């Protein structure tokens, strides 16, 4: 069977981030996050305990499967338990269920629990169990639990445990406040600003042009940087392909069908006159008339928009034909670009229309469109022809035909290329992701298969040999060597020029005397400066006021003078909001540390027992 293109998976989140999520969101994992998970079956009922509280096999299996499902969504494909364990997921899950068991053990010890009314209120508020009316639906509740091998008693018991844990966590983590000295210190650092001047250097700023290299210099550069002029290891691949573009020109064209295609898509070729308009609606005629009077009195249209609590994006109607504008069509099409017409009665109320732009009618005749339509027609015919050939190609390959046989018996074209895995080469066939994926994966012992390409083409390939990495001969690489030498030479010259300018600035010269300067009046640590290295702004915040520094990176050389250091603002809404946010973050961090210490102490005091055999049995039961 022919293979089809597939999408690449997504990258997983980092382990540290996942661990944090498990600790903070543990209550959802066991009680509420296990949908889509089947229960663990067998004679073993627990994988361990904390104090008097068991960690059941179902709890561990459900939590582990939930996390595997979450990781699979991030990858874009279902991953196995073994793959998840390579990320340490099993250990993260085990630690999370131990933490939850410690909390359950403590709530039982001190008698923390909630009544049926609290559980019912929480249950009926869950979106998973709401029907079409938006309220709790008992049938949806039963159906969802049944699909996940949970009884109502099991789920409600877990929910009661979750709420009890929340109460305990709130009691431990609540009431903390970040010390003012701490938040003030953090804010003073985080809110600092910098004002600086940047002189970006290019080859035009050099005092003398870079000399042309001699052959000896080029050969020396080639020898010293041979890794830059080495062909990487490649797979020599022979492939047989049938591409729509290769056979499209040979497909017959039916003039009658082209005429029909033109008429079917006439909207693409005959576009009526249009207007790009903005529509400002008012609640009644009196309000619309008053706005019109203000506009006639000289008030800008933009101020009328702001007065309605809207933006220009909110009232943008796009480009419309006269008919699409309805009753507003006549006055709008009679107006010039920039005019405001109305009030005009609409279904939504009286409105003012501003004509943003006038778009003339466009018409492409059949004769002008024929060539484009013919190419599309022939390409579609080529795709259908190839689709009819795929089964034949599959049968030939299954019967032992070689790629060379395909060229004779199915009309495919044969070619050979050296493919570097993970790279897109210059060959047309390497522009197809499906081909690159197959070429990356092919092994010497693989049988050739028909691979469907993204544009309807088909290809089959085989690996002939591995071509080892080897230096490109100097004469063949000479142009590339010259380009690379010049790039290095310019970079060295710019670096030297930047050092000269830095010395001059430290001696009292003005930075503006050396070229055009970008002045940044002030920026925060989290500000944005366009087209600079990643560490640019962070390094500027390390400079002393009045200091000068040279910044160099790939394709970037600049001299920066730090003009001033500005302290954090102490007044204003932005300052207050930032201080509040920092205080909240510090408070949350302190509460999190306290809760982590609390659960660690609970676990140590109650004692942990783990049954590795039971844990292994859970792992063995999972796909």
What does this structure look like?
The chain has 623 residues and is α+β, with helices and mostly antiparallel strands. The chain folds into four domains: 15-174 and 607-621, Triger factor/SurA peptide-binding fold (Orthogonal Bundle), CATH 1.10.4030; 193-223 and 477-566; 234-252 and 368-468; 273-360, Chitinase A, domain 3. Helices cover 49% and strands 17% of the residues. Strand 17 and strand 18 form a beta hairpin. Helix 6 (116-124) packs across helix 8. The longest helix is centred in the C-terminal third of the chain and has 34 residues, at 573-606. The radius of gyration is 35 Å and the shape is extended.
The total count of strands amounts to 19
Between the first and last Cα atoms, what is the distance in angstroms?
Answer: 26 Å
The structure class reads alpha+beta
Query: What integer is the average pLDDT?
Result: 86
Tell me the fraction of residues in β-strands, as a range.
15-25%
H/I helix tally: 24
- Quickly give the CATH architecture of the largest domain: Orthogonal Bundle
Q: For the report, how would you describe the main beta sheet?
A: 4 strands, antiparallel
CA-based shape = extended
Helix content: 40-55%
What is the number of domains? 4
Strand order of the largest sheet: 16-3-18-17
CATH class of the largest domain: Mainly Alpha
- Calculate Rg over CA atoms: 35 Å
CATH third-tier fold name of the largest domain:
Triger factor/SurA peptide-binding fold
**Ranges with pLDDT <50 over ≥5 residues?**
6-39
């Amino acid at each position: 069977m022919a293979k089809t293109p597939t999408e690449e998976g997504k990258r997983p989140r980092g382990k540290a981030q996942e661990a944090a999520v498990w600790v903070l969101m543990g209550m959802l994992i066991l009680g509420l996050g296990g949908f889509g998970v089947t229960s663990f079956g067998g004679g073993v009922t627990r994988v361990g305990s904390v104090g008097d509280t068991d960690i059941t096999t179902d709890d561990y299996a459900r939590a582990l499967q939930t996390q595997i499902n979450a990781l699979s969504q991030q990858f874009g494909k279902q991953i196995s338990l073994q793959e998840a364990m390579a990320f340490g997921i099993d250990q993260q899950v085990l630690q999370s269920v131990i933490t939850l068991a410690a909390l359950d053990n403590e709530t039982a010890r001190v008698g923390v629990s909630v009544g049926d009314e609290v559980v019912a209120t929480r249950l009926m508020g869950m979106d998973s169990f709401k029907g079409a009316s938006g309220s709790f639906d008992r049938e949806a509740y039963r159906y969802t639990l049944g699909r996940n091998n949970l009884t109502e008693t099991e789920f409600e018991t877990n929910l009661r445990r979750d709420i009890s844990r929340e109460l305990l966590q709130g009691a431990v983590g609540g009431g903390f406040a970040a010390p003012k000295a701490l938040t003030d210190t953090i804010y003073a650092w985080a809110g600092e600003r910098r004002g600086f001047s940047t002189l970006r250097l290019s080859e035009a700023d050099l005092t003398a042009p870079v000399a042309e290299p001699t052959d000896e210099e080029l050969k020396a550069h080639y020898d010293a940087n041979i890794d830059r002029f080495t062909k990487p290891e490649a797979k020599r691949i022979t492939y047989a392909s049938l591409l729509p573009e290769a056979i499209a020109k040979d497909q017959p064209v039916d003039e009658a069908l082209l005429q029909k295609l033109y008429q079917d898509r006439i909207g693409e070729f005959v576009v009526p006159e249009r207007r790009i308009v903005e529509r400002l609606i008012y609640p009644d005629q009196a309000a619309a008339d008053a706005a019109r009077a203000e506009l006639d009195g000289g008030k800008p249209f933009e101020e009328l928009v702001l007065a309605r609590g809207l933006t220009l994006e909110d009232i943008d109607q796009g480009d419309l034909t006269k008919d699409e504008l309805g009753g507003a069509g006549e006055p709008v099409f009679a107006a010039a670009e920039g005019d405001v017409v109305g009030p005009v009665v609409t279904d939504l109320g009286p409105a003012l229309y501003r004509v943003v732009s006038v778009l003339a009618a466009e018409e492409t005749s059949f004769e002008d469109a024929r060539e484009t339509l013919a190419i599309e027609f022939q390409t579609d015919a080529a795709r259908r022809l190839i689709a009819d050939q795929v089964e034949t190609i599959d049968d030939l390959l299954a019967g032992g035909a070689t790629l060379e046989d395909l060229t004779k018996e199915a009309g495919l074209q044969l070619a050979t290329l050296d493919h570097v895995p993970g790279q897109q080469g210059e060959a047309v066939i390497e522009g197809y992701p499906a081909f690159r994926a197959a070429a990356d994966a092919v092994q010497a012992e693989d049988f050739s298969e028909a691979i469907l390409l993204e544009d309807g083409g088909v290809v089959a390939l085989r690996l002939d040999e591995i071509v080892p990495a080897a230096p490109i001969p100097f004469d063949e690489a000479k142009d590339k060597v010259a380009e690379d030498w010049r790039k290095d030479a310019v970079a060295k010259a710019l670096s030297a020029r930047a050092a000269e300018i830095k010395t001059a600035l430290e001696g009292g010269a003005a930075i503006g005397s050396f070229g055009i300067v970008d002045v940044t009046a002030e920026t925060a640590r989290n500000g944005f400066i366009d087209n600079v290295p990643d560490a640019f702004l962070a390094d500027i915040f390390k400079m002393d006021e009045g200091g000068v520094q040279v910044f160099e990176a790939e394709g970037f050389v600049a001299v920066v003078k730090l003009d001033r250091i500005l302290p954090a603002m102490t007044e204003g809404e932005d300052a207050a909001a930032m201080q509040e946010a920092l205080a909240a973050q510090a408070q949350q961090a302190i509460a999190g540390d306290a809760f982590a210490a609390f659960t660690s102490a609970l676990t140590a005091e109650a004692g942990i027992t783990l049954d590795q055999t039971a844990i292994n049995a859970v792992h063995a039961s999972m796909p």
